[in-house]
Design goal:
The complex is a heterodimer. Chain A has helices at 2-15, 25-39, 42-45, 47-68, 77-130, 135-155, 159-183, 190-210, 283-294, 327-336, 354-360, and strands at 213-218, 223-228, 231-237, 259-270, 273-278, 309-311, 323-324, 342-346. By secondary structure, chain A is an alpha+beta fold. Chain B is an all-alpha fold. Classes of the chains: A alpha+beta, B mainly alpha.
C-alpha cells in the first residue's frame, strides 16, 4: 500500500512538471566570459570592477553548486539566474569598457607615432642641411627603428610596452636634437652673428655705392643672394663642403671659409661645369691660420689650402669647401659677375633662423 | 537509560574521531603551490599564460573547497585533495609544454634576426656600389650614418636573444629589417637618380 502511494506521488510529480529545471544559459556565458575578461586584461583596466565581478561569479557559482546538491525537483535556478545575469551583464560592461579604452589607447599611440614620424622627418632633413652624419643622424635612425617596434607592439595590443618605447623614441630624438644644436653653437652666438651682419651690410653698401654686383652667401640657410646697386635681385640655393658649417682654417678640413672675398678668376670650363675662383685665403684667413699654427692647433705640415670656388654640379652636392650651385645658376652667375665682384660668405644673418626653430620646435 | 547513555557516548566518540581525523590537507596545498611556482619558474607566465591562469583558478577553487570544509563540523577534504592532486598533474603537463614553446619563440626570433641581417647586408652592399657622384654624395653619406644607426639597433637583437627575450628580439629584428629595406629603397632611388641624368 505504502509502495503504491510513493509511486503515485512520483508519477503525479512527474506529470505536473516537477522535474529538474534546465541550467540557465548565463552559466555557459559566464564560463566563456571569465577567461575572456582575463585575457583582455580586466585586472589592469578595471581592477575594482573585475574583482567585484569575480566575487559575484564565485558566490553565484557556489550557490549553484549548493542548488545542484538538491534533488532535481527541488532545484530553483530561477532565483539565482537573476543574480548571475547581473554578474554576466557587469562582465559585458567591463569588456566593452576595456575595448573602448584599448581603442582610445591605440588611437593615442597612432597619433603620437605620426607626430614622432613627422618630427623624425624634419630632423633628418636638418641633419642633411647641416651635413651631420655622425651621432645625430645615427640616433635618428635608431629612433626610427624604435618607432617601428612601437608600432608592432601596439599592433599586438601591448600598449604599455608601446608607450614605453615611444618615451624612448622621444629621449633619443632629444639626443639627436642636442647633437644638431651643438653643431650650431657658433650660429647662436649673437656677437658672431653681429660680425657676419656687419660684413654682409658692408658688402651691400659697397654694391650700392659702386653700383656693382655683389654676392652674399649664408651658409646655414644654404642661400646665395645677388645684389645689384645695393638691391637684392636674385636668390639661389647652394651646396657646401662635407664640413661646410665650420669656418675654413686649413687645407683638407672640408670647411667653407667665412669672410669678405672677391672673384679672382672665371673658369668657363671646369671639372664642375663652370667655376668662379675666390681669393681664399685673404689676409684675415692668413692671420687666423698663423695664430692656429703658433698654438699648434694645426700640424706643422698642413697648409692653409686654396682653390675655393663657386662652381656648378648641383646645389645638392658635397664639396671639399667650395660652394656649388646648379649648372643653370652657374650660367646666370657667369653672365652677371666680373673679376673683382665681392663675395661675402657668412654663417647666418638670423639668430633664430628656420633651422633653429625647426630643431627646437616640438 | 544506561543503554542510551552508552550509545550517545559512542556516537559522540565516533563523531569526534571523524571530525578530528579530517585535517586540512596542508601537504597537498603546499605541493600544489610548489607545482604552480615551478610552472612560473619555467617561464609559464610568458609561454603558458592561459594555462597558468587555469592553474591559478583551480588553486583558488581548491582553496575555496578547503575553506568551505573547514567550516563544517563533519569535514570532508577528499574532494579538495582530488582537486589539488589534479592540479599538480596538470602543472606537470603544462611545464612539459613550455620548453617546446620557448624553442618555437627562439626559432622565430632567430629567423627574424637572420632576415634583418640579410636586409642590413643588402643595404650595405647597395651603399658600397652606389654612385658617389655630384648630387648623391650627401644622400649616401646620410644613408651610411643611418646604416650605422641601425647596425647598433641590430646588435640589440642579439642582446635580447641572449637575455631570452625572444618576443622582444623578434619585434626589434622586424623593426630593423623595415628600416634596412627603406634604406635599400633609398639607395636604389639614388642610383636611379644618377642613371636618369
Amino acid at each position: 500500500m505504502r509502495y503504491r502511494s510513493v509511486v503515485l506521488f512520483l508519477l503525479a510529480a512527474y506529470l505536473t512538471g516537477c522535474k529538474t529545471p534546465p541550467v540557465p544559459p548565463e552559466v555557459e556565458r559566464a564560463s566563456v566570459q571569465e577567461p575572456q575578461l582575463w585575457r583582455a586584461g580586466a585586472s589592469l583596466y578595471a581592477p575594482r570592477e573585475y574583482e567585484e565581478y569575480i566575487e559575484n561569479i564565485k558566490q553565484t557559482r557556489q550557490a549553484f553548486e549548493k542548488e545542484n546538491l538538491k534533488l532535481g525537483w527541488f532545484r530553483r535556478y530561477d532565483l539565482l539566474q537573476d543574480r548571475l545575469r547581473k554578474a554576466v551583464d557587469s562582465g559585458d560592461a567591463i569588456l566593452a569598457r576595456i575595448r573602448k579604452e584599448k581603442e582610445e589607447r591605440a588611437g593615442r599611440i597612432k597619433v603620437e607615432t605620426a607626430a614622432l614620424k613627422k618630427r623624425l622627418f624634419t630632423l633628418r632633413e636638418i641633419t642633411l642641411s647641416l651635413n651631420e652624419w655622425g651621432q645625430g643622424r645615427q640616433r635618428l635612425a635608431q629612433a626610427e627603428v624604435m618607432l617601428n617596434e612601437a608600432g608592432l607592439m601596439a599592433g599586438q595590443a601591448k600598449y604599455d610596452q608601446a608607450d614605453s618605447k615611444l618615451r624612448n623614441v622621444r629621449d633619443v630624438i632629444k639626443e639627436a636634437e642636442g647633437v644638431c644644436l651643438r653643431l650650431l653653437v657658433r650660429y647662436s652666438d649673437q656677437s658672431q652673428i653681429n660680425v657676419w651682419r656687419r660684413m654682409a651690410d658692408e658688402t651691400v653698401a659697397e654694391s650700392k655705392a659702386k653700383g656693382i654686383t655683389a654676392i652674399v652667401v649664408s651658409k646655414l640657410e644654404k642661400k646665395m643672394v645677388i645684389y645689384k646697386g645695393g638691391r637684392a635681385v636674385a636668390e639661389f640655393e647652394i651646396g657646401l663642403g662635407f664640413n661646410g658649417l665650420s669656418d675654413k682654417l686649413h687645407s683638407g678640413d672640408d670647411a667653407t671659409p667665412e669672410g669678405r672675398y672677391q672673384i679672382t678668376k672665371k673658369h668657363p670650363s671646369s671639372r664642375f661645369y663652370k667655376a668662379l675662383l675666390i681669393n681664399y685665403p685673404n689676409e684675415e684667413d692668413k692671420r687666423r691660420f698663423a695664430a692656429a699654427k703658433q698654438k699648434r692647433e694645426i700640424p706643422y705640415w698642413v697648409g692653409i689650402g686654396g682653390m675655393v670656388e663657386i662652381h656648378g654640379g648641383g646645389e645638392d652636392s658635397l664639396t671639399r669647401g667650395c660652394i656649388s650651385v646648379d649648372d643653370k645658376v652657374m650660367d646666370e652667375l657667369f653672365r652677371i659677375v666680373d673679376i673683382g665682384t665681392p663675395v661675402t660668405i657668412v654663417g647666418t644673418l638670423d639668430r633664430e633662423g628656420s633651422i633653429f626653430k625647426a630643431i627646437k620646435d616640438e | 537509560m544506561k543503554n542510551f547513555t552508552k550509545v550517545l557516548a559512542l556516537a559522540l566518540m565516533v563523531a569526534f574521531v571523524f571530525a578530528s581525523c579530517a585535517k586540512v590537507p596542508t601537504q597537498a596545498i603546499d605541493a600544489a603551490k610548489a607545482a604552480i611556482e615551478s610552472v612560473v619558474a619555467a617561464k609559464g607566465d610568458i609561454y603558458a599564460k592561459d594555462e597558468l591562469k587555469m592553474l591559478n583558478d583551480d588553486m583558488t577553487a581548491a582553496n575555496d573547497e578547503v575553506t568551505a570544509q573547514s567550516k563544517k563540523f563533519f569535514k570532508k577534504f577528499g574532494k579538495a585533495k582530488e582537486m589539488l592532486a589534479k592540479l599538480v598533474t596538470d602543472a606537470d603537463s603544462i611545464k612539459a609544454l613550455i620548453p617546446a614553446r620557448i624553442e618555437e619563440a627562439k626559432n622565430a626570433a632567430l629567423q627574424a634576426q637572420t632576415e634583418a641581417k640579410a636586409a642590413v647586408d643588402e643595404a650595405k652592399a647597395l651603399l658600397e656600389k652606389a654612385p658617389k657622384g655630384k648630387g648623391t654624395k650627401a644622400d649616401i653619406e646620410a644613408m651610411k650614418a643611418d646604416l650605422a644607426g641601425i647596425e647598433a639597433s641590430f646588435a640589440e637583437v642579439q642582446t635580447a636573444i641572449d637575455g631570452q627575450d625572444y618576443f622582444g628580439a623578434k619585434d626589434k629584428a622586424a623593426a630593423v629589417k623595415e628600416k634596412a629595406v627603406a634604406i635599400s629603397d633609398q639607395v636604389k632611388a639614388a642610383i636611379e637618380k644618377v642613371k636618369g641624368r
